[in-house]
Amino acid sequence: MASRSFGVKIPSNNDEVDVETGRTDKDRGKAFRSKRVLTIHNQALLSGLAYCFSSCSMILVNKYVLSSYDFNAGISLMLYQNFVSVVIVSFLNFCGIITTEPLTWRLIKVWLPVNIIFVGMLVTSMFSLKYINVAMVTVLKNVTNVMTAVGEMYLFKKHHDNRVWASLFLMIISAISGGFTDLSFHAIGYTWQFINCFLTASYSLTLRRVMDIAKQVTKSGDLNEFSMVMLNNTLSLPLGILLIFVFNEVDYLSQTPLLGSPAFWLVITFSGFLGLAISFTSMWFLHQTGATTYSLVGSLNKIPLSVAGIVLFNVPTSLENSASIFFGLLAGVLFARAKMR
């Protein structure tokens, strides 16, 4: 399904508009051209801000729930967030605002392996956030880029230039130095984060192939973003329930007083909306700009997130640790620029 233009009129072939520069055909009037440029730039700015806000807020809210509330049921939190996403997408589909592919057994069997990786990615992210501060999580996430690049090289025979490998090397150095200088170092949290990096890289490497296979078993022959959101979140529900029993979160949930707090329910429901908002805003932002700007903003987005994580949660830090965090964030920006070229 084509992405919505969110109020921006899509130009015809005779009236092309570059969403990065705002240029139109020369035969257009100057006043109309200025108005179109302003409209497009406003849409790009608005979608970019929405994407940054939702992605940063999601991590900060999860950290707040797991640490400030001392909520020891990360799988249950993930399960509830996915349930909220399923309810919202189902409602939008029922109202005719979006369309999703019906869940058939053939589609489920094709998508289930990648969904297991998806659930593992979310669960390990929850576990790592419980023990690691937000700034170090953002730096350690750079390890995912290293694993993905190596996976692309061995699985898809893709070659990277020296700029990419140089930035990847800087990411590894920043992760190692950040761990050694982290005043709140927690071995369990770091272990969960590295597992999360491996699962995230695996998800990105297998998703493209699974998407191509899944399209062949859908009724429309296509698989839009909303259908993928619906697939991932719906299939994660039974798997999440199983994991709740495996990790014995049932006993904790039956005893914790947090479930009787309306404020707590408000916060975790808000986190569910944020999870879905990331899917919507990222698609909107990518439509309004392009892969180049989207990739660069995603890297720059980690800088205010790291600062906010340190300030909001009063994270003890040192000059050496702050330098390693900044070094890692800079390496992420260099990696994005190298991939663009």
TrEMBL record:
Major place of residence: membrane
This protein's UniProt keywords: Membrane, Transmembrane, Transmembrane helix
Top-level division of the source organism's lineage: Eukaryota
Topological relation to the membrane, as annotated: Multi-pass membrane protein
Domain Sugar phosphate transporter: from-to ranges: 46-326
GO cellular component labels: membrane
InterPro entries: Sugar_P_trans_dom, TPT_transporter
Protein's UniProt keywords contain Transmembrane: yes
Pfam (any one): TPT
Places the protein is found: Membrane
Transmembrane domains' residue ranges: 44-66, 78-98, 110-129, 135-156, 163-181, 187-205, 226-247, 263-286, 293-315, 321-338
PANTHER family, sorted: SOLUTE CARRIER FAMILY 35
The protein's name: GDP-mannose transporter GONST1
Species of provenance: Sesamum alatum
